[in-house]
């Protein structure tokens, strides 16, 4: 229906604006970082999930392409491990929507072997470690070795947790770490505000009557929550995937009324960007 189309359109409108501003402000288009790919894969897969559920409602539960979110996210994990939460949620979604439970498991097994083999091959050639930063390495003249791979992983993690030593050492393992982390940089503070906003929106979404709730909403909650949690535990730096922080604010049309945001959705997008860049 046109109302559904506005829902998916509103999602793209709200989420792409701030992401583009971040990329421009941080001058990430001029770098070879694979973080950009993870941003847009996350956006595209989450948008596909909305379209799949809307097509399901229109076509009375029969829809093609339910494996696409899982396929795209799994292939993307070869470029960036931060996409892992998207892969997991997409896999659960694929199993949930598939009429045959054997088909998605078989497809996932074959795809997983292919992707893991692809990552292992490139990892071995680059560092002697099959799935770096995991310290599964073999001795080669050019390789890092298990000890060096472990050291690099720990150094990167500690650097992100301490925000380049801006967080006091005695606060790193306490609950107050989140506040020191949040105020350490402007980007972290914006991410922190987005997490708080997302928590409020989630609460509002959970309270919606089931018959009025968009069927894709909880799946997008799953991607956002698992994505943010994954980053905070493994590498607490929002630049690794800003999209996770914007997913729930971007599905405001599902939580409130499309009519409320139809005219202001574009403005909300740029408000988020203004907070980041001002």
Automatic annotation (TrEMBL):
- UniProtKB keywords: Membrane, Transmembrane, Transmembrane helix
Does Calcium show up as a keyword for this record?
A: no
What Pfam families would the database entry show?
A: DUF8201
Span of the signal peptide: none
Q: Which positions, given as ranges, span the membrane?
A: 12-29, 36-55, 75-97, 104-124, 189-207, 216-236, 242-261
Q: Which residues form the DUF8201 domain?
A: 8-246
Ion transport found in the keyword field: no
Q: Tell me what this protein is called.
A: DUF8201 domain-containing protein
From which source organism is this entry? marine metagenome
């Amino acid at each position: 229906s046109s109302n559904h189309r506005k829902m998916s359109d509103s999602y793209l409108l709200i989420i792409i604006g701030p992401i583009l501003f971040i990329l421009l402000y941080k001058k990430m288009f001029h770098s070879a970082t694979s973080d950009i790919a993870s941003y847009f894969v996350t956006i595209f897969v989450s948008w596909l999930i909305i379209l799949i559920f809307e097509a399901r409602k229109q076509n009375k539960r029969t829809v093609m392409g339910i494996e696409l979110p899982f396929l795209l996210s799994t292939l993307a994990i070869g470029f960036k491990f931060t996409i892992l939460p998207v892969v997991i949620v997409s896999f659960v979604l694929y199993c949930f929507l598939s009429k045959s439970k054997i088909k998605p498991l078989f497809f996932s097994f074959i795809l997983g072997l292919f992707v893991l083999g692809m990552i292992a091959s490139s990892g071995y050639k680059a560092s002697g470690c099959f799935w770096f930063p995991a310290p599964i390495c073999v001795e080669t003249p050019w390789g890092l070795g298990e000890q060096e791979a472990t050291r690099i992983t720990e150094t990167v993690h500690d650097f992100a947790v301490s925000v380049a030593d801006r967080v006091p050492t005695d606060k790193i393992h306490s609950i107050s770490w989140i506040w020191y982390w949040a105020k350490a940089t402007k980007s972290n503070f914006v991410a922190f505000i987005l997490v708080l906003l997302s928590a409020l929106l989630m609460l509002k979404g959970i309270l919606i009557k089931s018959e009025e709730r968009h069927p894709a909403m909880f799946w997008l909650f799953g991607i956002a929550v698992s994505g943010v949690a994954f980053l905070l535990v493994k590498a607490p730096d929002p630049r690794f995937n800003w999209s996770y922080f914007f997913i729930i604010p971007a599905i405001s049309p599902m939580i409130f009324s499309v009519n409320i945001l139809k005219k202001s959705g574009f403005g909300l997008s740029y408000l988020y960007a203004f907070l980041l860049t001002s």
